[in-house]
Predict the 3D structure of the following.
Amino acid sequence: MKLDDFPKDIQLHLIPRPTGDLVYRCLECGAEYDISQLLYTCPKCKGLFLLEDKAADRLKAHPGIFWRRLFDYRKMLNIPALKGVFLFYELIAPVIPLTDIIYLGEGHTPQVAANDALREEVGRAFYFKNDGQNPSASFKDRGMAAALSYLNFLAKQPGAGKMLAICASTGDTSAAAALYSAYLGKQIASAVLLPHGKVTPQQLAQPLGSGARVLEVPGVFDDCMKVVENLADNYQVALLNSKNSWRIRGQESYAYEIAQYFDYDLQKKVIAVPIGNAGNITAIMQGFLRLLDLGVIEELPRVLGVQSRHANPVFRYYLEPDKAKRVFKPVTVQPSVAQAAMIGAPVSMPRVIRLAEEYTRRAGADAVTVVEVTEQEIMDSMLLANRHGHIACTQGGESLAGFRAAIKAGLLSPEEVGVLDATAHHLKFIGFQQMYFDNTFPPEFEVTPKPEYQNRPQLLTPQTGDPEKKTQDLASQIAALLNLTPKG
């Protein structure tokens, strides 16, 4: 649709120009730092940052209805920089020129309703938002689009020189970081640290295919993260984990898209999300709060965080009902099928605590809830969903398992509708499905396959050596196996 075809009052705003005044704001001491620096924690107190737009009041000059119309009309534009998460440009990174924005097809992933049979089985209406349909097959592309667009912008400043982008990962972060870095070419080199033997072959193949330098570290994700944090503190590298405030900004788009899908009416909606390193749940809460501040939405949806018993530090933190007595303690993780969420010391925990307090203050004490599920429930839920036409990964199974656990515990009313985060594509975690089918899970996973969810190919053997009769013989076997009715 051409610009002249839009309503006159919208035309001037459809293609935005850089504006705003973004700074890094420390969550702990409140210190402020210029975004021209590669910073991830406060030099004064080591607190985490959130990006803050000091000129955000300019956005409030327009009412909520203006922003709803602008975002809806902007979807009709054919400008690549505004087709992805930057469709919500004014809320993501309004200081970056459109010419520096990277778009690889991320964002605006399908939100697919559960069919009648699945809805009846679960006991509530719900949707899967399939973030596995992002370019690198996970939700991490949302954050990388913002983080690498910022690096692209920064690299063009005088004296910037070549940059090294680095991250620790359980698979999805490395795939996204390597993909977006590769698109930028020689200006941005890419290196990823992975826990040795803890990443699926499919996920390992992605950064290797994008040309990243892949380094494996003994231990689990938390061990990789400590090394990367040390590098970021002592060397000129661009850290691309969720400590990166630009990543959080990009991932806010998940909340914006859900709001847009429901025509900005979020009454009786529940967003279920696996917690992992806690960056995504942080971004989702922050995104909805910002929409509320602008009057784009009138009510905050509930947020349901989900953790496996094998990696549950956030769930344990909120077990203490008295806020004054809560103390965050990292946990030693056990093997989990939800590998991307197998994190015992989430780096974004300070953001979670701060934003959950603000969210519940404005939406009620039960607006943010964290539930715990078993590995068995995760696998069973993933297979149940995919038997009904979805492409949920194990983290998507974790979201559904948490949604079902919340229903069973009486935490959700019958009228509430769920939106479940399937963070990656099913095919990234296909090895766990095969272990389920073959009943080869090691004991530490605590998964026992249910026969009704197992599936395997069946070899047919011709009962004749006559080539002319072989086809008919196989067809007859198939007709008997499938109980087919002969044509009259």
In short: Residues 301 and 331 are 29 Å apart (CA to CA). The chain is about 40% helix and 15% strand. The first helix runs from residue 8 to 14.
